[in-house]
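Thought: the user asked what Adenosine 5'-phosphosulfate reductase looks like in 3D. I have the sequence; next I should run the structure tool and report back without guessing.
Action: structure_tool
Action Input:
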Amino acid sequence: MNLLGASGTYRDPEESPAGVTTTAPLDDDTLRANQELVDKHADALYNETAENILDWAHTHAPGALAVTLSMENTVLAELAKDHLPDADFLFLDTGYHFKETLEVADQVEARYPKQTLVRATPTLTRAEQDETYGLNLYLTNPTACCRMRKVEPLAVNLSPYAGWVTGLRRADGPTRAQAPALSLDATGRLKISPIITWSLEDTERYIEERDLIIHPLTKHGYPSIGCETCTLPVAEGEDPRAGRWAGQNKTECGLHS
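Observation:
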């Protein structure tokens, strides 16, 4: 059903803009290889170290890998530099990020020049989305907004890769408490989560030891950072993701569900 706005009839937010919105299928050989790798190694990697998980991926992945970076921190970029040097970096530039997040992305590109930073963008600009779906879709239908500005751009930009590396941590909340270090996504690509066993304290220790790029908002009550429009600071001791989509019946953007 269409939404009626002041400027006319808006498009149903369940209908994405025209264009490619899904990941290209893998060839049969890569699909088969990925399934065999998960069947054989997922249990052994469940509680492995980040370094060993990435060394395993560098040795066994049957194709190119992408390292997804939210720019909340740059731990994955540093780990990949040493253990997955051929991987690309993939950043979802939603158009709604804090300016500090975009500044971190620029710093990553400068600090890790040997690895390509791919900036995945949505089909529509913010203004075009407002015109097509109505003002502030992130408030009226945050799931649709995340789909069009995160889930679909990730899907499209994963097409060249046999797998992707994520920053998932089991400590980030109950929806992630049993997440594996190695699995298959819906397209049959490897989904590799090297810091899955890390706590927030482990992450902060690694950042300090390596003198990594720091997202300034993490020092001001933002342990989990998404789009500026949908992220609030959290109280000390609160669930690190409590500030994401605060006031909405929503805990995940859809990238990991």
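Thought: the tool returned a structure. Summarizing for the user.
Final Answer: Structure for Adenosine 5'-phosphosulfate reductase predicted. Residues 25-212 form a domain with the Rossmann fold fold (CATH 3.40.50.620). Residues 28-45 form the longest helix (18 residues).
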